[in-house]
Amino acid sequence: xxxAQTVSLIEDILKGNKTRKDLDVVEDKALRAALQKVSFVVxxxxxxxxxxxxxxxxxxxxxNALSCAIVLLQSDKNFxxxxxxxxxxxxxxxxxxxxHNAALYLxxxxxxxxxxVELVGYYNREEQRVIITGDQEEPLIxxxxxxxxxxxxxxxxxxxxxxxxxxTRFLPIDGLGMQVSSLICxxxxxxxxxxxxxxxxxxxxxxxxxxxxRILETMGEFIAYxxxxxxxxxxxxxxx
Amino acid sequence: xxxAQTVSLIEDILKGNKTRKDLDVVEDKALRAALQKVSFVVxxxxxxxxxxxxxxxxxxxxxNALSCAIVLLQSDKNFxxxxxxxxxxxxxxxxxxxxHNAALYLxxxxxxxxxxVELVGYYNREEQRVIITGDQEEPLIxxxxxxxxxxxxxxxxxxxxxxxxxxTRFLPIDGLGMQVSSLICxxxxxxxxxxxxxxxxxxxxxxxxxxxxRILETMGEFIAYxxxxxxxxxxxxxxx
Lengths: 240, 240
What we know:
Oligomer: homodimer
Structural class of chain A: alpha+beta
Largest interface: A-B, 46 and 46 residues
Number of domains of chain A: 2
Number of strands of chain A: 7
């Protein structure tokens, strides 16, 4: 193998055009081994860059979730009831995390039946606005096991749907009239009390990943804590 | 240059023993260029791995801080006063973040003078125990601008000391009798109210980095929020 051939082979390896098997044609054993090592370094570099990219994305997501939690906890408002506090939370979520749709459901003040949740409002990322369920409108209530929201409120577990069409738990009611292909939702629990459901959705399939579960559950923890305490403090401050 | 020499050169490049300049001896222009590219890929791989490592460490730190915040917010206890809530916070910090010393200072209930803070307790990582300042003992109070704790409570800014010996703001009183070489501390502020100082220290110089500032400030936000609200709720629950 002459120098020109060696050079051409190295160039191909660097471009990732040669597999380890392709190098079997190199007759010189030592050269073949050296070139295989070069090919391995190229692969390692690619893997490292990919991991770095993934980790950066996750890191940014956690930082976003943290900022959102801090803005929420710092907000100087207390509320007489959970639905007012939930509306405020939804407004902050839509400002801090505007890249997906968000919806907040709460256990109604007089639930009647166990496992019911009622839509408080949602954020539509396409229209970039928060839609609050008015008191005039017919309330949107999910019964137990009704849609994915009903499933989450019944099972009190986070649900990740990479493709809503492939999940029988998803019903049109869960989409809230928005174009939804993937969805992740988590129960809101504070001090053992089930308070509602937080849901994020997106029109792209597979928008949410396994690692988003932890981030969403963290968000859920903070929001449940916020709802519980801002109402408690709101009541405490109102009483003389 | 024969094959054996080329192989030896490639092996050296892969080990990182050759700089770009060392390759000037290669007479064949095309081979030199190809080997320089290999050397560049080796460098890129090293940088990617180092960045990945740094990012993983930061990521783990944020996850740790988050877990600590969640454990704190989830804890089912409310307290009649800030110092009881602060002691509880310190116990959780020492369980969740046991790799450095931690200390918590609060504005005394009757501060008298502005800018005073009093030590509530500290965690000694070497002895792995929390030391709570008892009511019998002489309280350890920092006046304004007294030591780095006094500086933080006066300026209400986070301070990062890579080497306490090189910072005139640091006084022996800040070390709390522990071996301290580096330190980071942040003011605790909730709803504009200055409540105290949270401090982490370590016996190794340069243990804390620029990116720890954000993490510590986040911790400070949660702890200040927790102190403020657990006392408010504690009082609300006690009143009939």
